[in-house]
Amino acid sequence: METVPQRSTELFSHILNAHHIWNHRILQKSPEYGVTQIQPLKDWGDIHYENQRSSFEIITYTEDFEVRLDYENSEGRLFTNTIKDMLFHIINHSTHHRAQISMDFRNNGIDPLTLDFIFYKR
User: Fold this and answer.
1) What is the rounded distance in angstroms from the CA atom of residue 1 to the CA atom of residue 79?
2) What is the three-class DSSP state of 37?
3) How many CB atoms lie within 10 A of CB 37?
4) Above 60 in pLDDT, residue 1?
């Protein structure tokens, strides 16, 4: 296995942390991770699994995705968004950073995985 570049480790940790934080905002719980906390590679699978499990729980048990929830961002500012928009943000946010990871891989001589949705649907 090739070594994961440091910038990619930071970006993927951020993706995992942000997904966790947004799930916890929707569930109105305090998050366990900070937005820029570096996660050990060995924990990535477990954190991803828990994020997915939590998101599926939210989707399964939410009766109204238009409910607006108040939350504080990582800088302590108060915002309000719908559950639907928060869930969409989780997906959209990670798309941006996965592209950055692909570029970081290329810059470090590593061939990144194909990210195109249609590639996986063929």
Assistant:
1) 42
2) coil
3) 14
4) no
Give the global pTM.
0.91
**Burial code of 64-83, b = ≥16 C-beta within 10 A, e = fewer?**
eeeeeeebeeeeeeeeebeb
According to DSSP, residue 13 is labeled: H
- Which single residue is written with the structure tokens 């480790």? 9
Q: Kindly report, residue by residue over 108-122, the tens digit of the pLDDT.
A: 999 998 888 788 788
Look up the CATH superfamily of 6-121: dinb family like domain (1.20.120.450)
Q: What angle do CA 75, 82, 53 make, to 5 degrees?
A: 85
Per the prediction, the chain carries an average pLDDT of 94
Instruction: Say how far residue 40 (Cα) sits from the centre of its chain.
Output: 16
What is the residue extent of each domain of the chain?
A: 6-121
Q: How far apart are CA 122 and CA 104, in angstroms?
A: 27
